[in-house]
Structures are given as structure tokens and as C-alpha cells.
Write a structure and sequence with these properties.
Elements (H helix, E strand, L loop, with lengths): L1 E10 L2 E11 L4 E5 L6 H8 L7 E6 L2 E2 L7 E4 L13 H6 L4 H4 L5 H17 L15 H13 L5 E5 L7 H18 L2 E5 L12 E6 L2 E5 L1 H4 L2 H8 L4 E5 L2 E5 L17 H4 L5
Parallel strand pairs: 3-8, 3-9, 6-7, 7-8
Antiparallel strand pairs: 1-2, 1-4, 4-5, 9-10, 11-12
Helix pairs in contact: 4-5, 5-6
This protein binds adenosine-5'-triphosphate.
Adenosine-5'-triphosphate binds next to helix 1.
Length: 276
């Protein structure tokens, strides 16, 4: 579905990553992790044909990337929609069916097919109940389900997700992650999932691409999410702990770190005060 060979991207003097070789097969779930500014969104933009590489090659579906490829679904970084936006959820999802494929004037049969596709996508994400409400009035989690439906309505074989769980509560995170996972099992859809937090998707992840300051590692979570590998990537001492079925990362100082931005200056008694 995706093939990157010797791929590099630089802006001016700054190289985001270089020498990146990555193959993604149908049905594979790839998590892309790394601190702010490491080039995760830029990688998605390359695959969407919005950002040319500065070195190497990229192919999707075995051919050159192109913008507006409706075989690629895209869930963008979540922004809360304007409260005043009166567009209905059903129409937002319909935007995922590109005009040139369906034509500007639709026959009655085509119109019915389009309506059915939108309804199926709404049902698949459990959004049928609020499909006719103005999207600006919906909660962040409800809006996010609609974005997933919009990305899936064209039946993409490749789904690119840019932090789709951001600012969702735990129940909504689980639901949205499960929807995406269900889709890949149902249709063998390959998923490239940019995230700062691996735990909500950990059971689904086949491969991690972890990028830090131009350095990166690719492999299964058990190989990449280790103290040794993350310490090498961050060039500082990082501890990766397994707590129940979660991964806890300490020492990176970025948002995947259990201690957040203060991680490297951590004083245990300040973070976790003893009960008085
Ligand atoms: N078109 C551009 N021109 C110049 N610099 C750019 C351009 N696009 C991105 N950058 C820079 O490249 C770096 C990587 O950006 P990118 O959005 O890919 O990071 P990210 O890993 O997705 O970050 P975050 O986790 O904060 O979303 C940033 O420093 C950004 O400012």
C-alpha cells in the first residue's frame, strides 16, 4: 500500500528525516510516534501528495502519489468545529465522496447509491442518531466519529489518521480506535496512525515508526518501545515500563512521557505527594 525508499524531507537546513525505508501491507496497522515537530504530519502530507520528498521515492498502491486520491482516507488533526456551523453530519460525511467520481449531475440510481454509502458509513461509526444535527453543536467525540465516517465513506484501502484521539475522553478514544481497527479487519485497510499516546491503540499496532530529531526506528512495539531503543533515539536516559497492559515512558520530556514536559526535571515527591 505504501513504499518509501531512501525517503528524506528537509526544510531549509533542517532535515526532518532521511534514509527512511518503509513498506506498509494491506491490513497493517502502523503507529507513528515522536515528539512535536519530528515530522509525523509531514509524512502523512507526503503520502497525500501535498508535500514532495527532498530525497528518495514514495509510492502508494504501487504508483506515484497524487492529491485527491479517493483510495486514501484521511482523518485530519482534530479541530473543534465552529459552534455556528450548520452543516449536517450527513453532509460532512458526503464530502468524503469526491465530486469527480460521482459527477455533478447524479442519476436517481447514483443519488440513491450515494445516500446509501453515507448512511452505511454513519451506521458504522454509530453516528446515525445525530446525522441530521448541525455539526457545530456536536461534542468533540461525536465530531470525530463523523470525521472517521468521512474518511471511510469512499472505501479506502489506506487510511491516514493524524492524532484522531486528541482531546477525546477515554471512552471516546477507545470507540474511535475500535472503529478504525474494525475497518481494517473488515476490508484489509492499511492504517498509518500518528499519535502521541500509544496505549489506546497498543493491542492493534503491528509496527511502530518512532521519529526523534531525525533519528528513527521501525519495528514491532516489543522491539521499539524499550528503554534501550528510546534512550538511543532521545540521546538521554529513558525508562519504558510495562504496567499491566500499558506502556509507561519516563524521561523523554515530551507528551508521551508519563511525567509530561517536566519529565526530565522530575522530583517524585512533587509529582506524587504522600497523602497527609
Ligand atoms: N512547508 C513547511 N515549510 C517549512 N517548515 C515546515 C513546513 N511544514 C512543516 N514544517 C516544519 O517541519 C517540522 C515538522 O512538522 P510536522 O507538522 O510534520 O511535525 P509533527 O511531528 O507532526 O508535530 P506535532 O506532534 O506537533 O503535530 C516543524 O518544525 C514544522 O514547522
Amino acid at each position: 500500500m505504501v513504499s518509501l525508499r531512501g525517503a528524506g524531507l528537509r526544510f531549509g537546513a533542517r532535515s526532518l528525516w532521511d534514509g527512511l525505508d518503509l513498506d506498509i501491507s494491506p491490513g497493517e496497522f502502523v503507529a507513528v510516534l515522536g515528539p512535536n515537530g519530528s515530522g509525523k504530519t509531514s509524512l502523512l502530507r507526503v503520502l497525500l501528495g501535498l508535500q514532495p520528498l527532498t530525497a528518495g521515492t514514495v509510492r502508494t498502491y504501487g504508483g506515484a502519489v497524487r492529491t485527491g486520491d479517493n483510495r486514501i482516507g484521511y482523518v485530519p488533526q482534530q479541530k473543534t468545529l465552529d459552534r455556528g456551523l450548520t452543516l449536517r453530519g450527513r453532509d460532512l460525511v458526503g464530502l468524503g465522496l469526491s465530486g469527480h467520481h460521482w459527477g455533478l449531475t447524479l442519476s436517481a440510481a447514483k443519488r440513491r447509491e450515494r445516500t446509501d454509502r453515507v448512511r452505511e458509513a454513519l451506521d458504522a461509526v454509530g453516528a446515525a442518531d445525530y446525522a441530521d444535527a448541525p455539526v457545530g453543536r456536536l461534542s468533540g467525540g461525536e465530531q470525530q466519529r463523523l470525521r472517521v465516517a468521512q474518511a471511510l465513506v469512499s472505501d479506502p484501502g489506506l487510511l491516514l489518521c493524524d492524532e484522531p484521539l486528541l482531546s477525546l475522553d477515554l471512552a471516546s478514544q477507545r470507540k474511535v480506535a475500535e472503529l478504525i481497527d474494525a475497518r481494517r479487519h473488515l476490508a484489509d485497510t492499511a492504517v498509518l496512525f500518528v499519535t502521541h499516546e500509544i496505549n489506546p491503540i497498543l493491542p492493534m499496532v503491528d509496527t511502530v515508526l518512532y521519529i526523534v530529531d531525525g533519528r528513527f526506528r521501525i519495528g514491532p512495539p516489543s522491539e521499539v518501545m524499550t528503554s534501550r531503543v528510546l534512550s538511543e533515539l532521545y540521546r538521554t536516559e529513558v525508562d519504558v515500563l510495562r504496567v499491566r497492559d500499558r506502556i509507561v515512558v519516563v524521561g523523554t520530556g515530551d507528551s508521551i512521557d508519563v511525567l509530561g514536559r517536566a519529565g526530565q526535571e522530575h522530583h517524585p515527591q512533587e509529582q506524587f505527594p504522600e497523602p497527609s
